Every structure is written in structure tokens, then in C-alpha cells.
Amino acid sequence: MTICSSDEIIDEFELLTRDAGRVQQDTLTKILELNADAEYLNRFSLERRTDSKSFKSCIPLCVHSEIESYIQRIADGDNSQVLTGKPITSLSVSSGTTQGKPKFLPFNDELLESTIQIFRTSYAFRNREYPIGNGKALQFVYGSKQAFTQGGILATTATTNLYRSWRFKEAMKDIMSQCCSPDEVIFGPDFHQSLYCHLLCGLIYSDEVQFVFSPFAHSLVHAFHTLEEVWEDLCADIRAGVLSKRVTTPSIRQAVSKILRPNPELASSIYNKCQNLSNWYGVIPALWPNAKYIYGIMTGSMEPYLKKLRHYAGHLPLMSADYGASEGWVGSNVNPTLPPEEVTYAVLPNIAYFEFIPLGKPKGEEMENSSSIHYIESEPVGLTEVEVGKIYEVVITNFAGLYRYRLGDIVKIAGFHNSTPELQFICRRSLVLSINIDKNTEKDLQLAVEEAEKLLAEEKLEVVDFTSLVDRSRDPGHYVIFWELSSDNASEEVLSSCANSMDLAFVDAGYVGSRKIKTIGALELRVLRKGTFGQVMNHYLSLGGAVSQFKTPRFVTQSNSKVLQILNRNVTQSYLSTAYGI
């Protein structure tokens, strides 16, 4: 790819979105022509037709469990045209942090190209608002273990599939975002060593860093929390020009040692800046003075980390990265000045074929502050047929063999950019907490925690991380909320009040009614030892996951026994709500 200016990329995007309906039909035609002989499509007698009407009448909506057997055949070595015309040569592995079981999803060159297009588009709009020079990016990116399935298919995270690609690396050069760290750090076998070296390389090139990035806000917060603990060791390494003995992997040591030289002046500067910080507020602009912004996915389950990330960021703007999933990309952030809580994503009409299932709210459940709605579905509509202010579930048909696949994401139409909609991510559709007629989602859980967290402010405490569980071990069942706090100094009175606050914050009518008649028991707050969620992450990494893809599960099922064991053995205190009486 030749280097394109931001203006050229924006012009290309404007052209694409002026007639999004036509582009969508062209995209569907291209997908169906490329995969005309796919077994999955022929099963439903599509018979090589490529018009949207035939496609929708023949091919049903689906979820992962309904195509899992096809993907498993590919994993087992079936190289016939199972889902696509060309054989699938690699699989992406989803995070699997909720159920404890990752999903396989097909990955191919077309998905790689759509990723590059998404990244180039959002970069162009960011660069127009916050121009960056020929510098580097402090990127906290981590490859995962690359495994091969029984059939010899490479199976790894979507992040690893990207960063191992020569094509992707060349494209990233074109948008001037070279990582401070060498590849050996990104693909190192030990996350803790890689993180230490990311910080070290970032400090070595501190004056060249133009922005700070990680795929998720969680890994950004984790990185700078680690900096609080290891900054003196990093200064010692830079002062002496010798890498810490904590880094034992030969390939990482060799690669980092090539760029590490004795620099007492830089070490002293970093040391003085860290010492002068007040509780690490504004550490990022202090140590990386030329950084323009901080970039990563900050919506959905990442929102709870924004408060801490803003603390580290000081005056630097936070910018939410693009909208997609392991299944594929949906849209770019073309309004980079919006804060993460208000960010919207313009759908790129040529990267996949999109449909939207309208979700209606039953009477009596129209409460603005509750996302726990049992939605009434209507027939899916096309990309250009959505209406501003209404909510939908996203359906994707992509070039990698997913056809009318329900992503499970709820979005709101915030407006249009030319003729393509701008989406606001609301939440995952899957229920988080439900015992009988109650229905509470991840967003409801987040709102409840935020409400209770206000009571901690007076004691200068904050919730580091949280998750939840439906406990049916005794009748009636009840909600359990696990908290890890920034300190052990919270009083019993305050924590009891927090349990009551969360219990009352779940305003779903089914929950409130069930609590009043005691068919749902009192909410329980369980306080965890510091570092518990670090153990949860380490467990995930031990299964071959990548930290840059890690998302704390907001709901832990009984089948996720290992994570439940970690949580339960680290409980230090427990408080039952008395909000609805004892």
C-alpha cells in the first residue's frame, strides 16, 4: 500500500458513505460470488443468487452455536468449501472470559484488509484533529500462544493474527504508528516480562512517543499501575544500560539490549518526575511530553476503567478505538473529539454486509436508566433503513464465512454520516444476572456499582474491578457482587451501605418485585483481597489468551469453576443487603 495522506483517506471514506445502500448491495454480491460453492450456503438452496431479497429469504439468522460444527470441521482439517470458497487457513480465538470457553472464528485475508481499512480511516480523522509527526507509539500489545488445531490450522487471538502479518506491519508504517518495542517483546512468552519491556522501551523513546495505545482500556490501566510498582527498577536499567534480571527470556533480552544504552540524564529526569507526581496523577504526559492522546477500546465493559485512566492521563484526551469483535469490524470512530462515553462509530459499508434487528420496548419497561429490557424483535432492516434514536441488534455477513450472524450487541442510532449510520454501543444483549423474572445486563451491573462507589469517595477508596454471580446454592437465589478495592481501609458501615445501594440500584421491575416478595434473596457484596483480579487474568493467560484481549468477566457462570475458585478463596468480607428488610 502506498502512503496515503489523511485527506485522501477521508475523501475515500466520504465517497463510500455517500451511497451506502448501493455499496452494501455490491458488497453482498461480492461476498456471495466469492463463496458461491460454500456448503453452508448451498444447504439453504441459495443457488448462486446474490440479491439481498433471495439471501434473506433463504439464509436464516444464526448464532455461534449453530455454525460451531462447521468451524470445528475446518479446525479438524476439512479443507473443502465448508463456509468459504477459499480454504480458511487460520482461526481467531475469542476471549472466552465469561463462560471460560473460547470460541473459534474464521480469519482470512479479507478480514485483515478490512482491519487495515478501519484503522486507516480512524487514523485519518484522528490525525486531522490531533496531527502526529514521524514518531512512535507506546503500544501495550501482546501476542498470544500460537497453537495449531488437530487439522493443522493456526488458532490464536485476532490481535496475534494481525501483528504476525507482514501486510499489517507495512500498513501500520504507512500511518506512522510504529511500536516502541521490538517484535520479540510483543510476542514474548511471558506477559509480565513483555509489559516491563514495553514500559522500558517507551521510556527510552519517551520524546518520540506521539500517542499511547492498547486494544482495551483495562490493559492501559494495568500497565500504568505496574509502572507505579517498577519505576525505580526501570530508572536503574536506563541509568546503567543493563536490562533487569527479571527479564529472563533470551529473545527479549537480546532485542531490548540492542536499544538500551547507559543514559544517566534520562534516568534522573524520569526519577525526578515520578517522585514529584501527586498519587501518579498525569503520569502519562509527565513522562511522554509529546503524546497527543490515549487510544483504545473504552466502551462497554471498559467504561469502569475510564476514571482511573483519566487519572493517569491528566490533561490528555482519551479516544475510544473502533467498533468490532473477533467476528469482524463494524465501524470507525470518525468523531475523535467526543469523550468515550459519547463516542459513535460510522459503519464502513464495504467491509461486510450489515443488518439490524429492531428492538422494541414492552410497555412499562421504558425506563431510561435501565438496559434490562426483554426486547420485542421485528424483521431485520438494512444499513440505510435504520432510524435515528432507535435501538437494534447488529447482524453481520462477512468475507470469512459468517452469514447473517447475530453479534449480540445492542446499538443506538446516533445519526448519519452521509448515508451510513453512526452507532452508539449500548451493551451486550446477553443477560448477565437473572434468577426468575428479573433481567439485568452488564450495563445495569455497571450502573449499580457506580452508584455504590459514590459512598466510597469520602473514604478515598475506589473499586479496582468487579464481577458478579447468581448464587442458587440456597433458596431463594440471590445476586453476589465481588469487589476488589484500592485499599483495605473501608469501614463495615460503609460496605454495608454499599451492599444496600447496589440492591436498590437494580431498578428492573422483575427484580424489584421479586425482592419485595422475597423470591430473590438479599444482594451480597463480597470483598476480595488485593490482586485477586490479577490472578483471574493470569489464569486466562495460562489458557493461551493475550492480555491485550483480556476483559474481566462481569458475570461468572457456575461452569467457570476455576475463576469461581479464585474468587471464593480470596473473599475477606461479606455483606448482605438489608435494603428490603431482613
TrEMBL record:
Keywords: Ligase. Residues 345-428 form the GH3 middle domain. InterPro entries: GH3, GH3_C, GH3_M. The keyword Transcription regulation does not apply. One of its GO terms (molecular function) is ligase activity. The keyword Ligase applies. Residues 443-559 form the GH3 C-terminal domain. It comes from the Eukaryota. Belongs to the IAA-amido conjugating enzyme family. This is Jasmonic acid-amido synthetase JAR1-like.
